């Protein structure tokens, strides 16, 4: 079973090489890409099954024993993240294929797109399975390097401008992460996460605090947590729709995953919980206020993405088993629903020619199917029962109320406000773009929508009467997946709870990686 | 653990210079700043390796205690490769940006400017007496003011305040507009003065072979922005 773990990273990498070689044969390349990701998904699903039934898998790469060699660790959290991200990546790939087929491959250089996409997948998976900090850094770099290419695909002026902001900010966060890895090595003499967790307890608290803050800032930039989040709505919306969808769904969540690991395995004491709570509150409120001010649906979604990162940080800051479990469930929900919304917006752009709600009208009549595909995830994101968004928020609020500190209640209030305002923004987009008839649009202009911020350099795209069938189907598959998260919320939440119990106090993780380690009882 | 003081000083200087350059507007400087930061971090990794020893190769007569810790070297090698690759990509991107827009500068975020200049922002600048005072000398600046006034007349968004006012007052107002625009950190003319020092670094791709001439660049950028607003 252990051999499966490296496969999940290797398959996309081998697939990327094969896709690069077959660049001249688009059909073969698509087949190679799809099969590589399908296999990776199968391996991930198998891993989830194995890990959930028989416990954490640890692979010592190259046969070097744990603290010295590189380890890959798959516990329940990792396996869950692998399965969700692999399925999202696969569905978005189908969407891209549909788009490429429809456009005749003229505008997007697909021969580069598919290999880069697979390398992005490999980077994401590598970050999830990494058992030592430096490998995590390498995973981040792999996924970031391919994200740079995907974001600047085609090299238009708007994308170059957005790309440079994105790259410089990401580089800074990577260097900060690398510097903190160096500091940790200086303090503990190891980069193995489990061994760091053991040795950190022997370090003076002030040194611990410095390292803790450095790591959180580095991961906070990647996860787009409030004061470090301004690069995101600036850069994401300019990319092609499927790229934005994958970035929004996955890349920030890798940062959140890293924060979960930091807070549960490396620093389980919750030393910075209150600071994280405040940051979560600010992220929630400020992000959603940004969303309310946007006319462009893609930009609005980017701001809701920011805002909802706050929920996950809140769950992590609660630092109880229930809180982290709710955060894990929310991460899964948010990966799926945010990706779905961006895909649906891509469809809107195709039939409407724009994503600005000031220039969209009568879409429901034009395409009822896309209307439904937008409406369901919109309600889901807004937290309407019975969807997974509601369940995730409920889980977080219950866990926060159990903690019972005044700060937790304030964040709960902020979360409720953010949820309502998200719903408001989503429903405004729905009402104006889909529900409003074309005649109404021609004779009426509202002072409220006219003051909204438009996307800079927004150009009208050519619109088609009908969106390509494969794109619609891929979006429908994502919607189905998001509904499945609601239907199977019970088992999924139970699994999140088990994953969170694994993480509690880091004991399980340390014992899996370094069997026989004697843990001091005091700080745990 | 004893640490080489020279390394620490080198790291500190590299970090300081790197951060300074990273905050510049010129993208070539940002790239150089990033390279310096990368090197500083690599030196940091070497510093945490501790005391300096012999090469970590197992030979007769060398004990483990005398050897250098090899892991940080492996880490920094990996980091060097990654930094190298990313800077090559960034360089390509800068070239592309220069190719498309003849600009080696981080472009203004149009939305930021729209938010900053919409409605009240302009009035705030107007009511500030300090700006009105320091604009009244230097013929070069006057010329620029006229330019700005013309420009703002060409764009309805900017002229919202001046239209309907007599020519004399309009002139005065346009001076205010000029200062208001110039004091805006996001706009070129003020910027070019800051970007002057360091002739050595300016030799990197600069538009039109006229390094640092702000007013030459400004009209393009300005009309561009106004047109899309």
Describe the structure.
The complex is a heterodimer of chains A (524) and B (229). Chain A has a domain at 270-446 and 465-487. Chain A has 22 helices and two strands. Chain A has a two-stranded antiparallel ribbon. Chain A has helices at 4-21, 26-54, 76-103, 110-129, 133-151, 157-188, 193-200, 205-223, 231-235, 241-266, 273-292, 297-318, 321-352, 363-366, 368-382, 388-403, 406-435, 438-443, 447-450, 469-487, 489-503, 507-513, and strands at residues 57-60, 71-74. Chain B is mainly alpha-helical and 229 residues long. Chain B has helices spanning 5-22, 27-48, 70-101, 110-117, 120-127, 129-133, 139-154, 156-159, 167-183, 188-194, 214-228. In chain B, helix 1 packs antiparallel against helix 2, helix 2 (27-48) packs antiparallel against helix 3 (70-101) and helix 10 (188-194) runs antiparallel to helix 11 (214-228). Chain B is elongated.
Rg measurement of chain B, Å: 25 Å
**What kind of sheet is the major sheet of chain B?**
none
Q: Biggest sheet of chain A: strands, sense, closure? A: 2 strands, antiparallel
* Residue-averaged pLDDT of chain A: 85
Overall strand count of chain A: 2
Mean pLDDT of chain B: 64
Query: Regions of chain B with pLDDT < 50 over 5+ consecutive residues?
Result: 120-142, 154-229
Strand arrangement in the largest pleated sheet of chain A: 1-2
Alpha-carbon distance between the two ends of chain A? 31 Å
Order of helices and strands of chain B: HHHHHHHHHHH
Beta strand count of chain B:
0
Q: What class would the helix/strand composition of chain A place it in? A: mainly alpha
Intertermini distance of chain B: 59 Å
Structural class call of chain B reads mainly alpha
Number of helices of chain B: 11
Residues in helices of chain B, as a percent range: 55-70%
Shape of chain B: elongated
Count of DSSP H/I helices of chain A: 22
The backbone outline of chain A, from C-alpha atoms, is: globular
Can you write the helix and strand succession of chain A as a string? Answer: HHEEHHHHHHHHHHHHHHHHHHHH
Spans of chain A of at least 5 consecutive residues whose pLDDT stays below 50 are: none
């Amino acid at each position: 079973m252990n051999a499966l773990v490296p496969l999940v990273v290797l398959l996309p990498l081998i697939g990327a090489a094969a896709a690069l070689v077959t660049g001249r044969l688009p059909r073969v390349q698509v087949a190679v890409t799809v099969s590589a990701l399908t296999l990776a998904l199968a391996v991930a699903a198998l891993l989830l099954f194995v890990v959930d039934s028989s416990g954490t898998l640890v692979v010592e790469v190259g046969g070097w024993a744990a603290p010295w060699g590189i380890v890959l660790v798959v516990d329940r959290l990792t396996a869950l993240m692998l399965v969700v991200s692999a399925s999202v990546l696969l569905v978005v790939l189908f969407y891209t294929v549909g788009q490429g087929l429809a456009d005749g491959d003229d505008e997007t250089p697909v021969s580069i797109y598919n290999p880069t996409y697979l390398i992005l997948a490999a980077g994401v998976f590598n970050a999830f399975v990494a058992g030592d900090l430096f490998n995590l850094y390498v995973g981040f770099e792999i996924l970031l390097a391919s994200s740079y290419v995907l974001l600047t695909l085609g090299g238009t002026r708007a994308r170059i401008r957005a790309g440079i902001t994105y790259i410089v900010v990401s580089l800074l966060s990577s260097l900060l992460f690398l510097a903190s890895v160096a500091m940790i090595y200086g303090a503990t003499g190891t980069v193995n996460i489990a061994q760091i967790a053991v040795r950190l307890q022997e370090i003076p608290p002030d040194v611990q605090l410095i390292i803790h803050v450095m790591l959180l800032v580095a991961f906070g930039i990647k996860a787009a947590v409030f004061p470090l989040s301004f690069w995101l709505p600036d850069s994401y919306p300019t990319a092609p729709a499927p790229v934005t969808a994958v970035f929004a769904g996955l890349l920030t969540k890798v940062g959140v995953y890293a924060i979960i690991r930091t807070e549960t395995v490396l620093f389980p004491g919750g030393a910075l919980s209150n600071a994280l709570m405040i940051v979560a509150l600010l992220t929630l409120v400020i992000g959603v206020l940004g969303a309310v001010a946007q006319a462009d649906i893609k930009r609005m979604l980017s701001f809701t993405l920011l805002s909802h990162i706050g929920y996950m940080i809140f769950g992590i800051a609660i630092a109880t088993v229930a809180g982290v479990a709710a955060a894990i469930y929310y991460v899964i929900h948010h990966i799926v629903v945010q990706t779905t919304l961006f895909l649906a917006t891509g469809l809107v752009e195709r039939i409407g020619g724009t994503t600005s709600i000031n220039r969209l009208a009568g879409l429901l009549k034009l395409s009822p199917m896309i209307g439904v595909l937008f409406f369901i995830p919109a309600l889901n994101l807004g937290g309407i029962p019975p969807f997974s968004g509601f369940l995730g928020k409920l889980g977080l609020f219950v866990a926060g109320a159990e903690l019972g500190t005044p700060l937790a209640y304030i964040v709960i209030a902020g979360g409720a406000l953010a949820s309502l305002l998200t719903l408001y923004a989503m429903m405004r987009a729905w009402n104006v773009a889909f529900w409003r008839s074309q005649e109404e649009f021609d004779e009426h202009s509202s002072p409220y929508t006219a003051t909204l911020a438009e996307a800079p350099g927004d150009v009208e795209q050519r619109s088609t009467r009908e969106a390509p069938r494969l794109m619609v189907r891929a979006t429908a598959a994502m919607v189905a997946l998001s509904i499945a998260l609601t239907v199977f919320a019970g088992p999924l939440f139970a699994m999140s709870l088990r994953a969170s119990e694994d993480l509690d106090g880091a004991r399980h993780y340390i014992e899996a990686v370094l069997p026989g380690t004697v843990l001091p009882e005091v700080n745990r | 653990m004893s640490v080489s003081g020279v390394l620490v000083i080198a790291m500190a200087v590299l970090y300081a210079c790197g951060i300074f350059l990273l905050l510049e507007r010129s993208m070539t400087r940002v790239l150089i700043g990033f390279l310096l930061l990368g090197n500083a971090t690599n030196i940091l990794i070497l510093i945490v390796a501790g005391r300096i020893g012999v090469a970590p190769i197992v030979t007769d007569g060398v004990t483990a205690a005398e050897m250098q810790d090899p892991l940080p070297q492996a880490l920094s090698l990996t980091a060097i490769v990654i930094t190298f690759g990313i800077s090559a990509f960034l360089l390509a991107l800068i070239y592309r940006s220069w190719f498309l827009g003849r600009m080696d500068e981080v472009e203004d975020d149009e939305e930021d400017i729209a938010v900053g200049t919409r409605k009240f922002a302009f009035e705030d600048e107007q009511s500030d007496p300090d700006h009105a005072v320091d604009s009244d000398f230097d013929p070069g600046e006057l010329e620029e003011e006229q330019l700005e006034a013309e420009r703002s007349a060409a764009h309805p968004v900017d002229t919202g305040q001046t239209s309907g006012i007599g020519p004399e007052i309009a002139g005065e107002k346009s001076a205010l507009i000029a200062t208001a625009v110039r004091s805006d950190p996001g706009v070129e003319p003020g910027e070019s003065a800051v970007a002057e020092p360091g002739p050595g670094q300016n030799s990197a791709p600069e538009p039109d072979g006229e390094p640092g001439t702000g007013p030459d660049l400004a009209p393009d950028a300005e009309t561009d922005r106004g047109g899309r607003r």
